[in-house]
């Protein structure tokens, strides 16, 4: 009688690719640029989180800002900016990262930004506030849940999005609608370090 055995084949689920035409009019920074982006969404990432990564790209966009491996790696952020020597100038994390992860990022980068969102963002901030307030190079922004959920509704495989930023207020326009967002600044080291 032949030996029968079960073979389990695990196929890696591939990232979903999005093509995005992006227009940024940031009046606060006098930054007006168009981008043609290809963004990969990790299989475990939601549309909401991907759109928040895109918003973080818009808010901190400058020459050299790039998407990191994010969910795929513990050693890379969602976005980062490196100088020509490879030194990390800006480390951007989306979600509710562990406080130790943020401290570690603070030791590797000149500036760290956390863009938090979701139902438990306020709880996360209250639990970590005392430790995070001590980190001089950390900025924390909190996005309103209703707006981030609405951003997920704009997702399509090919998107054209316009972002207008004025006095901290963000307006996102697409073929399917318009969303207004005003991030809450929980901690701002960027403004402190610029003055």
- H-E string: EEHEEEHEHEHEEEEH
Query: What is the fold-level CATH name, i.e. the topology?
Result: Restriction endonuclease-like alpha-beta roll fold
Number of domains: 1
Low-confidence stretches: 4-11
Please report the distance between the alpha carbons of the first and last residues.
80 Å
- Specify the CATH architecture: Roll
β-strand number: 11
Structural class, from helix and strand content? alpha/beta
Q: Based on Cα principal axes, name the global outline.
A: globular
Overall residue-averaged pLDDT value: 89
What attributes does this structure have?
single chain; 195 residues; alpha/beta; Restriction endonuclease-like alpha-beta roll fold; six-stranded mixed sheet; five-stranded mixed sheet; 26% helix; globular
Q: Explain this structure to me?
A:
This protein is of the alpha/beta class. The chain has one domain (16-194): Restriction endonuclease-like alpha-beta roll domain (Restriction endonuclease-like alpha-beta roll fold), CATH 3.10.640. It contains five helices and eleven strands; from the N terminus they run ββαβββαβαβαββββα. The strands form two sheets. Strands 3-4-5-6-7-11 form a six-stranded mixed sheet. A five-stranded mixed sheet has the order 2-1-8-9-10, with helices on one face. Helix 1 (47-59) crosses helix 4 (145-152). The longest helix has 13 residues, at 47-59. The radius of gyration is 19 Å and the shape is globular. Mean pLDDT is 89; it is low at 4-11.
């Amino acid at each position: 009688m032949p030996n029968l055995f079960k073979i389990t084949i695990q196929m890696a689920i591939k990232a979903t690719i999005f093509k995005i035409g992006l227009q940024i009019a940031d009046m606060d920074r006098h930054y007006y640029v168009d981008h043609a982006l290809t963004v990969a969404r990790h299989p475990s990432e939601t549309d909401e989180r991907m759109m928040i990564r895109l918003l973080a790209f818009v808010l901190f966009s400058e020459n050299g800002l790039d998407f990191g491996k994010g969910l795929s790696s513990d050693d890379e952020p969602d976005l980062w900016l490196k100088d020509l020597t490879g030194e990390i100038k800006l480390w951007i994390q989306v979600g509710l990262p562990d406080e130790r992860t943020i401290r570690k990022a603070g030791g590797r980068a000149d500036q760290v930004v956390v863009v938090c969102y979701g139902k438990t963002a306020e709880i996360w901030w209250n639990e970590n506030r005392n430790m995070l307030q001590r980190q001089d190079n950390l900025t924390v922004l909190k996005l309103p849940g209703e707006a981030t959920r609405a951003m997920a509704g704009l997702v399509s495989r090919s998107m054209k999005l316009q972002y207008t930023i004025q006095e901290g207020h963000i307006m996102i326009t697409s073929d399917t609608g318009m969303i207004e967002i005003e991030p809450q600044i929980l901690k701002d080291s960027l403004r402190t370090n610029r003055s």
